[in-house]
Automatic annotation (TrEMBL):
Database matches in PROSITE patterns: NA_SOLUT_SYMP_3
Protein name (database record): Cation/acetate symporter
Protein species of origin: Micromonospora sagamiensis
Key word Transport present: yes
Subcellular location(s) per record: Cell membrane
Lineage: Bacteria, Bacillati, Actinomycetota, Actinomycetes, Micromonosporales
Length: 568
């Protein structure tokens, strides 16, 4: 287990901040509250839509908090604080990419996707493509991201258990494995009992607790400096550990200058490509994308995306202040000075500010937060299996049978995913997070934009977009520094890399190009279907193509241009 929790064998850290007794007490208390919330939602589940989409009853405010909750992960809270403390200005630029990604959600995804209705990406793809290929593309993409991110989610629970529930300087493998297994099983129970409504309430509680704790810590840091941000910045600059090239903390260069990336001559494109990929791909990950389907209508989806973007900006602002406050208050030598130790910075500043009560609360909340991500992923995977995979297989179940199948799949997929995640704890799998984001940029964004807004798009175009973007992304990942040629790579002793920049930088434009070429080389064209898609995406109304609207051109589906999807 030390492989992923100490990659690759960094020097041990003397854990002076953990308060295991308080962390266990907080985690148990939160677990009881969450169980009550999930169990309360169970009584409102009467059909598959109630389980998978909370009956489309989630309001804008609640959904906005849940959307933010889906982005609050171990890497985007605990690790990012140390990243800011270590790399300053350049790390802050990375955070701006997350806020920019919310613009894609507000302007492109939210309203049109909700107006389309349905349950998965497949419902959007099926607007312009034959249903079976559309569902197949959706299932392949969703389940690949599900598999990668589930491993990361289980690993995140293990990270929290190691850093916050143990005072050992090395990994207490039995304790970490035990906590991870228990949290995984509890998360499966959340999904089984409460479905989407239960998971939504867990995500809302997660944002309230984590956001509240982060806000309190930020307020204390600002109070220490009497709200004088200039003095805070001066202290952060003065106390920062010196960069190996002598670069200041608050000027660009620690990540952008040549030589920033190990064994690479591709800087500054390495860091710039990460910013680009996050900005265009983060909200394309299927488990975040599904949040648009749960609101009552497109207007509420847009409102929820708008509020989520505002909350995200406020949250990241707090993370920036905490990161700079940590180096200003603790000093550059007391934060995590290597990548594997960046996650000690937030608990150390929390310990400095509030002692054991603060770090104990952080540990308990972080454990619930990482478990909530596993639950969110599980629900997304089960939804794709229920709607996409069954459609590909031609299976149609009555509502009662489908609901039983959904709950059975929650148990089967959940336990299998948990076991797989536990097995993979011994591997260096951090590459899965950026790869999932890259797939959002290379596959989801072009496919959704073309499906909603380009008249000529068709089945071949969709297949070339999804499978072409998937192939290019995975090929570049195989030959990237995440797989070889780097001490933290999957195969640190091998070196067959030639790509150091993020694949999304190339994958996104290629995804659009593949979609264009696939569409124009196919004879399939259905202008009536496009007109229907336009009306539906803008208004939510369903106008049957081929009956009220004349189609032009040819249709490879044998003339049947009806939209295969449910009414709104």
């Amino acid at each position: 287990m030390t492989g992923v929790l100490a990659a690759p064998a960094p020097p041990p850290i003397e854990n002076t901040w953990a308060a295991p007794a308080i962390a266990f007490a907080v985690a148990i208390a939160i677990g009881v509250v969450v169980f009550v919330l999930a169990n309360a939602a169970r009584g409102r589940i009467r059909n598959p839509d109630d389980f998978l989409l909370a009956g489309r009853r989630v309001g804008a405010g609640q959904n906005a908090l849940a959307m933010v909750g889906g982005t609050i992960m171990y890497s985007t809270v605990i690790i990012i604080t140390g990243h800011v403390a270590l790399n300053g200005f350049d790390a802050i630029l990375l955070l701006t990419a997350f806020t920019m990604s919310t613009v894609v959600g507000v302007l492109i995804y939210a309203g049109p996707v909700r107006n389309v209705g349905g349950h998965t990406l497949g419902d959007v793809f099926a607007l312009r493509a034959r249903e079976r290929p559309a569902r197949m593309a959706s299932a392949v993409l969703t389940l690949i991201v599900f598999g990668m991110f589930t491993i990361i989610a289980v690993g995140s629970v293990a990270f929290v258990a190691n850093r916050m529930f143990s005072t050992s300087s090395t990994v207490n493998a039995p304790l970490v494995a035990g906590i991870t297994a228990v949290v995984g099983l509890v998360a499966i129970a959340w999904v089984y009992l409460g479905g989407m409504e239960g998971v939504t309430k867990v995500l809302v509680l997660k944002v309230v607790l984590m956001g509240g704790l982060v806000a309190v810590l930020t307020a204390v840091v600002l109070a220490r400096y009497k709200l004088n941000l200039v003095e805070l910045l001066n202290d952060a600059e003065a106390n920062a550990a010196p960069d190996k090239r002598g670069l200041d903390l608050l000027t660009t260069g620690r990540l952008f200058e040549p030589g920033s990336t190990y064994g690479s001559d591709q800087d500054p494109w390495v860091h710039l490509s990460k910013v680009f990929s996050i900005a265009v791909g983060a909200l394309g990950m299927p488990f975040l994308f599904m949040r648009y389907f749960v609101t009552p209508n497109g207007r509420e989806a847009r409102r929820s995306a708008g509020w989520a973007s505002i909350i995200t900006v406020l949250f990241w602002t707090c993370m920036i202040i905490l990161g700079l406050g940590a180096v200003a208050i603790l000093g550059g030598d007391a934060i995590g000075l290597v990548g594997a130790h960046r996650d000690i910075t937030l608990p150390k500043i929390a310990d400095e500010i509030g002692g054991g009560w603060a770090t104990g609360a952080l540990g308990g909340i972080a454990l619930m937060a990482t478990g909530a991500i596993f639950a969110t992923l599980l629900l997304n995977g089960v939804t794709s299996i229920t709607k996409d995979v069954n459609a590909v297989r031609g299976r149609k179940l009555d509502p009662a049978t489908e609901l039983k199948s959904i709950r059975r799949n929650v148990l089967i997929v959940g336990i299998a995913s948990l076991v797989g995640g536990l097995v993979m704890l011994t591997q260096l799998t951090h590459i899965f997070i950026p790869t999932s984001i890259d797939l959002g940029a290379a596959c989801v964004l072009p496919a959704v934009v073309y499906s909603l807004f380009w008249r000529r798009y068709n089945t071949r175009g969709l297949q070339w977009t999804v499978y072409g973007g998937l192939a290019v992304t995975l090929l570049m990942v195989v030959f990237s520094n995440g797989v070889s040629g780097d001490p933290t790579a999957l195969f640190p002793d091998a070196d067959f890399k030639f790509v150091d920049f993020e694949p999304g930088l190339l994958g996104a434009p290629l995804g659009f190009l593949f979609g264009y070429l696939g569409s124009v080389t196919s004879k399939e064209r259905d202008d009536a279907r496009f007109a229907e898609a336009q009306v539906r995406a803008l208004t939510g109304a369903v106008v049957p193509a081929g009956r009220d609207l004349p189609a032009r051109g040819t249709d490879e589906r044998g003339g049947d241009s009806r939209l295969v999807s449910e009414t709104n």
